[in-house]
What we know:
The chain has 18 helices and 31 strands. By secondary structure, the chain is α/β, with parallel strands linked by helices. The strands form eight sheets. Strands 2, 3, 4, 5, 6, 7, 8, 9, 10 and 13 form a ten-stranded parallel β-sheet that branches. A five-stranded antiparallel β-sheet has the order 16-17-18-22-21, with helices on one face. A three-stranded antiparallel β-sheet has the order 1-20-19, with no helix packed on it. Helix 4 (about 80-90) packs across helix 10, helix 6 (about 165-180) runs parallel beside helix 7 and helix 7 packs across helix 8. The protein binds iron/sulfur cluster. Iron/sulfur cluster (SF4) binds near residues 111, 118 and 121.
Amino acid sequence: MPPSMPRVRIPLSLPHTSRAVVPSARPQWLAQRAYGTVVDGPVTQSKPATTFEKALTATAPRHNWTKEEIKEIYDTPLMRLAHAAGAVHQKFHDPAEIQMCTLINIKTGGCSEDCSYCSQSSKHDTGLKATKMIQVGTVLAAARVAKENGSTRFCMGAAWRDMRGRKTNLKNIKEMVKGVKDLGMESCVTLGMIDLEQAKELKDAGLTAYNHNVDTSREFYPSVISTRTYDERLQTIANANEAGLSVCTGGILGLGEEAKDHVGLLFTVATMPTHPESFPVNTLVPIKGTPLGDREQSPFDITLRTIAAARLIMPKTIIRLAAGRTILSEEQQVLCFMAGANAVFTGEKMLTTACNGWEEDNRIFAKWGLRPMQSFQTGKEEGASAPMREGAEKKSQIELSSSHVSFPLNLFKPLAIMDSNPPEVNYDYEATLADRKYFFNINDTTFIKRTLRRSEWMYGLTGNLVVPSTTLRYRLENEAACLKYLVSTSIPIANLLGIFQDDGAVYLMTKHIDGVSMCHLEPEQKSIVKKELEGYLNILKSLRSTTPGIPGTKFICPHYRFFRGWREMSVWKVKDNIEGMTDELVFCHNDLGQHNVIVDPNTLKIKAIVDWEFSGFFPSWFEAAFWEKPGPANDVGDEDRLREWLVKWCDEVETTWPSAWLTQMKKPIDEEKEEESSVSTDVVMTGLTSPPPTPTT
Ligand code: SF4
């Protein structure tokens, strides 16, 4: 396809109820949809969305937080907060991936600063012996060990105030950075205050990230440190940012601060022009001899709350469980991972304090289905992982527009990050809606739509879980059967590549079609297309059957306009006895809007008619002329007649209620096939000429 040619917007160019998304604004058509069961209350309410609800449905980071908004999120009841954070985490990250970092002290003790928690300050009598900076070779040997044990980021810390007058040290540190990079690891340094020039030198040496914690809120900060101001810290962070380095900046819990200081800490980092690439959450490890040596351990719920709130307000940032992890139980750590933490320090030691070891972490990872994040998945932009950044570059803003709503969908996450060893795939973008997921133009050949897995169910504006229509799987089967049936006709279609189930999701794969939707054409262009379309409609009408539906299938998937104001969207089956049916049955698309007609923009020839989920043999009056005007397939006034016909000749067999879902989804789809149960045996799990590949999502 020439680069200038617009991509096909096959299924999303116009909304209809089967493609309802959970948007940041509440469209009327979402409230009207006939399917989708909401657990514990309605999806929509008349009151405006709260800050919490907006954060839950956000599709991108925001930077204009107020303290009041962050407080609202931070104060959310903890279980609700943690669940919401988990949902946001799944949207922006692979929840199975944890970044493993190893931190080494390259220069210990003797620091002129007076950070009241730190054993390395020369102001405190902790018995720690100051040392000179260790050799480059020693550091790289430690990096090698870390790599062999699974760490992908190697962090180097020096106990001093700043880098002024440390030319030789800087030269050696750059050697270390280069050596770490040559090992294929990400590098991070924490060297106190640096200016822009030093930051640039480090960047040029190959440094990935610069760590400089703000520690706590601006207000509480003077109670912790007196030798360096908050603004000096922010300046160093700004320098690192300007030099193009990723920034790692976080805080310490348990310094004697209050909840408002956790809010203040989050406010500082969440309102930075670029959210930190990583946000370490430390809890104080009290060290004898420091002013805070006798403090009690910060309670776990504060750690969890801070992590969860951070995940909601900085959705793309990596959140690191840092100092103090050793006192957390395995289950507490896992709870943190579920609420959005996705990085740990691991290894023999963490600066001067104990650290959870690789062996222990590997055991926990294996047990809980976690795996180390690969190197260089992190980057500067908003903490986004590298594949996500690439996806963002590729992303197209898909505008859903109607008289009710216009908003972008930009939930893009490439397939590649979903598996540690994925096949190579490229595609234009993906989109997740309330009941399905689309992958557009995979490797320039393939289009996929699939049902959502349980872990992908979305939350409504009030935070309630939206259970997607369980009948989509039947509609996908119906479409597959239709495409198989029509392939021998002259109707232009996107050829079926396969339908199958993988890990609880039913996939429909078809050929990708380049072109534009008819709805995007000018009126005179549409007239030309309409003429050709009418020819195809005549061909469809010439096809005949004596049985409703698609030959070889057992189900009828009525269009959603059957159900509005009547009942939940459901699947039907033709009655055993249809003697007496006098209707002439012709092939109907049943959702033939302009958005489902893909046209070559140069020749105006129809390249494909798509989206055959509701198709089959029905009385010719089923085929409403949705192609006459742009917009969704709304009611046309004959719905009572449609329902009457349906009830007369068909029985309802599957609704969208959760109980039905539970019953139906207990058995894998292929088992059902073997048992010749009510699932269509003709189309389930078929891959046409060869078995379909198993996508990694
Ligand atoms: S600047 Fe770093 S090393 Fe120095 S006292 Fe503060 S925390 Fe410790």
